[in-house]
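Hey, I'm writing a tutorial for new members on how sequence and structure tokens pair up, and I'd like a real worked example in the thread rather than a made-up one. If someone can provide the structure for the chain below, I'll link this post from the tutorial.
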Amino acid sequence: MQVSLISIAQKYAVEKSNVGFFSTTTLEDIKASNSKSASIFNTSTSEIVFSIPISEFEFDKSLMKEHFNEKYMETEKYPKAKFQGSINGFDPAKSGSQIITASGKLTMHGITKEVEIPGAMEVKNNRIEAGAKFIVKLADYQITIPQLMWQNIADQVEVTLTFTYKPL
């Protein structure tokens, strides 16, 4: 019985999440955020998985959300972005912020790529706080920008993730 209790305590689920992205062009900055992501992190195996529902991104302008979902991300066809991999450099027994790297497969817009995402993790009040910031190039995931919109949409976006995990 005690063995199963130990393995349960090693798995953490997202309690709070925020995924945002930002891009800038000469005409307009575009930013959006999403607090509906799901994630599981297993501290004993270092495995991590997260899923981001694309349609849950919120924009300042409703038209931006509509274009994002229909023209660029094709959300009906590709409803989620997913990451599956492992965390390198995190020790749940250590205090203080730890520099980590998440290595694995990022799937977006139907395309899967091997990625390494730099970030930081910290144990606080029986929770694990995780954060990362990285660049996604739209062409890598076959997200195309219509010729008429090239000045409005950047060819890459900065993605910021913050997750707070609680024990399962």
